Amino acid sequence: MKSALELAMEKADEAVGGAEGIRLSDEQKAAIDEVRKTYEAKWAEQEISLKGELEKAAGADPAAWAEAQSQVQTHMHRVREQLFAERDAKIEAIRNQ
């Protein structure tokens, strides 16, 4: 009888293409690494920019600051999702080469 861990590992192996998994060339690995670094940098840049907007609103009255904080948080979430979706699409394209 297999343990829950063994069953989960078998499912994970099947999900990524069997026990041998997906084999990537060194060029593909380097390209994926570069895409990840690029998009992490883009996200960091956007995060700094958006937090700067929030700091500008910090001097306003509490109600306006709370509204600004809510808007910035929503915008940050959208930007992050968009950037990471682009990143994931590029990585998938590299994997499929």
What does this structure look like?
- The protein is mainly alpha-helical and 97 residues long.
- 80% of the residues lie in helices and 0% in strands.
- It is built from 3 helices and no strands.
- The protein has helices spanning 4-15, 26-57, 62-95.
- Helix 2 packs antiparallel against helix 3.
- The longest helix has 34 residues, at 62-95.
- The radius of gyration is 21 Å and the shape is elongated.
- The two termini are 40 Å apart.
- The model has no long low-confidence stretch (mean pLDDT 85).
Choose one word for the global shape.
elongated
Rounded mean pLDDT score: 85
Gyration radius from CA atoms, angstroms = 21 Å
- Report, as a whole number of angstroms, the end-to-end distance: 40 Å
Strand segment tally: 0
The biggest beta sheet is recorded as: none
Which range does the strand content fall in? under 5%
Total helical segments: 3
Percent in helix = over 70%
Instruction: Give the helix/strand class.
Output: mainly alpha
The sequence of SSEs as H and E is: HHH
> Spans with pLDDT under 50 lasting ≥5 residues?
none
